[in-house]
Amino acid sequence: MRPFLAHPFDSDKLHEECGVFGVIGMADASSFVALGLHALQHRGQEAGGIVTYEAEAGFCSARRFGYVRDNFTKADVMSTLPGTIGIGHVRYSTAGSKGATAIRDVQPFFGEFSMGGSAIAHNGNITNATALRRELIERGSIFQSSSDSECIIHLMARSMGRNIPDRMEEALRKVEGAFSIVAMTRTKLMGVRDPLGVRPLVLGKLGDGWALSSETCALDIIGAEFIREIEPGEMIVISEKEGVQSHFPFRRVKSRGCIFEHVYFSRPDSILGGRSVYETRRQIGVELAKESPVDADLVCPVPDSGTPAAIGYSQESGIPYAMGIIRNQYMGRTFIEPTEQIRNMGVRLKLNVNRALIKGKRVILVDDSVVRGTTSRKIKDMILDAGAAEVHFRIASPPTAWPCFYGVDTPERSKLLAATMSEEEMRDWIGVDSLKFVSLDGLYRAAGAAKGRDTKSPQYCDACFSGEYPIAPSDMIEKGFEMKAAE
Ligand code: SF4
What we know:
Elements: E1 15-16, E2 18-24, H1 29-39, E3 47-54, E4 58-65, H2 68-71, H3 75-78, E5 85-91, E6 109-113, E7 116-126, H4 129-138, H5 150-158, H6 164-173, E8 177-184, E9 188-193, E10 202-206, E11 209-213, H7 217-222, E12 225-229, E13 235-239, E14 243-247, E15 257-258, H8 260-265, E16 271-272, E17 275-276, H9 277-291, E18 298-301, H10 307-317, E19 325-327, H11 331-334, H12 340-345, E20 351-353, H13 355-358, E21 362-367, H14 374-385, E22 390-395, E23 408-409, H15 417-420, H16 423-430, E24 434-437, H17 440-446, E25 460-461, H18 463-466, H19 474-478
């Protein structure tokens, strides 16, 4: 039976689709990879996989649906993953079989080449995957999955490169889109970021061993020291003999990391772009309070992701911070097979209002984003039912009006509230006294760009807010997606 992992509350959030982790030079590598993936579970809860290599056993792999802690802690699984090198992947649901992942779509993917095997774990999305796949199939490739990431293995198979890192490099030159990749051979761990550096990837060190991870929080869990980020467009190859070797195989361009990583996807205890994610989120709250002040009695976060911004808003405005909404941390595991009646309870299953605190108060609710807006409406109902005098929403990101094609699960444009309504229409539809979003400039300032967004050459990818896509989503354009007209 597949466990029920997606919660009704979470369906109104954007979802990061993957986390990747890998180690080399560590006895019992699979345990370290499992711990790393556990720390990255927020980046994907649907399924996970680990590949290791050991001379006698060869390449070993285990791929499972569900949480890391439920699959990769048991001796019967972990004993099948020997070796001192390993990589892993957690996934939400990537391009291909959205919502109905087959085990064949669960990474890492593996390919056997004339010079040996290689496994890869990919975070991001290939925006020309449809065209690549079509071409590869016409030339005889036989795909095992519906995942865009499998194209990389087939492109490597067709490469004439002398070794696996060369083949990976050649394959990735044909790929468009966002990729942070952790890969391995029998003796090497590899990490690559796309030229824009859309998705994060960091390097850590533990004793004589090395680790690669989507986020620094997963280095912390294994006690590894954070060395540095893999730079946009950089490829590193790590071996026990030669250590870390770095080069830049792609044309150098200005980086455009995903700004939503700072708002929501990354864990607040991670360091991203040299900044504490928590501190950026707190600063967004400060910007929001400056841009959109309002008279009220309490500032309450929509837990958990609205918490740092609510703290910042409270500190800047002087309005007391309070836990007006309490999150049930164990909800996701309680109802394995929810009935229709339980599903209809929706957000109440996960969030409950602290009535004694809210009654008669003018409340500012701080949330990270508004996607469809359905959750915002339900939360407003709960707060009013509890007797609040006024409800003011403050949102720690600009209106999400465009879908992401770089590895984040977004509803189609017509389902995004901000794509179809003005800010005032959204306020009216949600039914609150006021609704304000942080400006794009305010968000950039909070993320460390003192002068805000450089409109001629933006410092981040912000396409889901601005509609300005730094990499043309060619597959989607072919399917009829209409880009924003140039201004
Ligand atoms: S479109 Fe939005 S979510 Fe996607 S990479 Fe860009 S900023 Fe991040």
